[in-house]
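Dimer-Tnp-hAT dimerization containing protein
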Amino acid sequence: MGNFNIQRFRQAAVLCLLDNNLPMELLSNASFREIINFANPEAEAALWVSPRSVATYAMRLFRRLQPQVVHALSQAASKIHISFDGWSTKGGKRGFFGSVAYFADASGVIRDLPIDLPLLAGAHTGEAISTAIIKTLKVYGITRDKLGYFVLDNAANDTAIAALSRVYDFDATHRRLRCGPHTLNLIGQAVIFGGDRDAYDNAAKQLSIEELYLQEWRKQGPLGVLVDVINYIKTPQQYELFREFQRAANAELPVRERLKVLKPVKPVVTRWNSYYCNGLEPRCYGDPRWNLRSFLGTLDASRSYVNNKPNAAYNLYAEHHISRVALDNRRAIQLNNKLPDAPTWMRSTGLTAADWAVITEYQDCLEPLKFATERLEGHGKAGNFGAIYEVIPVFEYVLSALEAQWLNTASAGFQRLWQTYKPQHQRPLTARTSTITIASGIDDVIGAFIRRKNNEEADEDEYERWKTQEPEWSREQYLGDGHPVVYWIQMRSKYPCLSQFAIDILTIPASSSDCERLFSELGDLLEPKRRAIGSELLAALQLVRAWVRAGFKTQPDSSAEGGDKGGDEDDLSDEDLVRDYNIQEWIT
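Tokens:
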């Protein structure tokens, strides 16, 4: 026990609270302290008895870690790309604005770091958002030369980017990028819901009529009927009834093809992929036979629609209700009563083989988007398709399937961007005097060839030289241990301008999902009993957790053995921290 380090134990305790969203008053809880006392009475004595002391220590951790984050950003090998978004607490009492920075470090590892989570009071206008972002960029030392691209998923952010472009002098249209999965989501919604009026290319007087037909088709067509059937399964009785029909359909299949009974997955109207995957849990990511292709039916010559289990289960379920409502209708008519209330689909013919075929065609159209969305999930640190270099082949796949002529436009855009990086004037050749005596005619020829090759390289565009001189990557290399950012860092001495161009572009994030994750964790932190936590402290708690997970060192100072301050290098007293960050007593 003599080697017990009070400061390290306190720090470990606070980090445990932050990492697991545990209440700060846990350390003062009598039963918890009793457990710690059984393990080590000295440890129990080291724990704070006031939640305010815990919060004060957490704020010290924030002040200790923030300079490390600023330093990491200053040493970035790439430009620093930004994503941001807003979020409001339940009831809309407080609005937070999260910012995440993306960059490559000196070793080529792509990092994503939450850097700010300020309270955004008032209307979330473009000017208010830009003001908050400018303040954040200044605090973290992100200058105009280091600022990269903005990856956002909300068109309302265009005004904010326009305001930022005036301050940092960049092309707003060029620097503002759409979130990759969000773009795919818009494409999927357009395929399903047909939201583009111009796509019909008809006279204005026909548009309103066609839109009415289209709305009716969405409600009563195959997709609408299917969604209505699924949404009706929402009570324990209906779930059990649907399970019975699954078991009945399963009994008609060979033993090897029988699958376990699963629950239906509800579609979300704003997410096209929920229509693709709506069907049975586990949401198309488990057994591939349960994805929508199986759920909606495949045109398998060896199996009719009736014998396809997922389709058969839904058909049996729908026919059960359709028959029941038809019987109730006949009874009501015989008794001269009002027809009983029932969903429209229960008074239809259900889903026929032709309807399943239409739905399958939709699935075929959405299949490239589904594959693309799955590949874009994750982070871009270890080849998990979270960075732009991992997005490029995904979007090329989608565009090749949906819009083959995109390549010419993309190539032209690449050349325009490369012109901003490449040297505008080639360096003049410097005469070199060789001390080697050419001993023969063969040596003369070799020397002339080398000099000619050097002259050609000096005049040639770095991009063209790289294309002709460097070996191509194999598919195995790309999918294996190949890392494009590391590759270009290693190429810096040979292609200085081209490598910087590549590193800056390849580190752009594929999506702005890190902001969503940040807010999701913030929502977990804000349990109903923690609503009184001050906004600055709340942001600090969230950022400390993210930074510690990212590997930044908390650097405990073990020189002191007591006191809430603990010998910390921070020059602010506890009272200063409580006052400056609005730390006060609360129930957590």
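The beta strands are 80-88, 95-104, 110-116, 147-152, 176-178.
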